[in-house]
Design a protein that fits this description.
This protein has a domain of about 55 residues: 3-Layer(aba) Sandwich (SRF-like). Helix content is about 70%, strand content about 5%. The protein has 4 helices and 2 strands, in the order αββααα. β1 and β2 form a beta hairpin. It is elongated, with a radius of gyration of 31 Å. Keywords: Coiled coil, DNA-binding, Nucleus, Transcription, Transcription regulation. Pfam families: K-box, SRF-TF.
Length: about 140
């Protein structure tokens, strides 16, 4: 029956040059859908909302969209900051804006040097242990 309904929706779409969308949920929760090739489900729902005057998206959904927009803006700002830390797009910055970037890079450089020194000391320690073990073996 489900396939029959989707087949009829396809036929109506073609024969009547109509924009058709069908969404079916079975009793087990499985979803089946069909949407005319010339449109999408969100476009159909938007048209329905405009023509019927009913609001499909409640305040919860709108707050989720606002949260998504906030996260997107935050992501964009972080990408700009990352480009600045990589030394890109610095011409648009004022000298006062360069100071925190320089400090962050200095802190990062110090951390990298400390890690390098730690690895070098561990390497030297292992080297000495291997030399002692080699002496004992010979």
């Amino acid at each position: 029956r489900r396939n029959g309904i989707i087949k009829k929706a396809r036929e109506i779409s073609i024969l009547c040059e109509a924009q058709v969308s069908v969404v079916i949920f079975s009793s087990s929760g499985k979803m089946s859908e069909y949407c005319s090739p010339s449109t999408t489900l969100p476009k159909i729902l938007e048209r329905y909302q405009q023509n019927s005057g009913e609001k499909l998206w409640d305040a919860k959904h709108e707050s989720l969209y606002a949260e998504i927009d906030r996260v997107k803006k935050e992501n964009d700002n972080m990408q700009i900051e990352l480009r600045h830390l990589k030394g890109e797009d610095l011409n648009s910055l004022y000298p006062k804006e360069l100071i925190p970037i320089e400090e962050a890079l200095q802190i990062g450089l110090t951390s990298v040097r400390e890690k390098q020194m730690e690895i070098w000391k561990m390497h030297k320690k292992n080297e000495k242990l291997l030399e002692e073990e080699n002496k004992q073996l010979t």
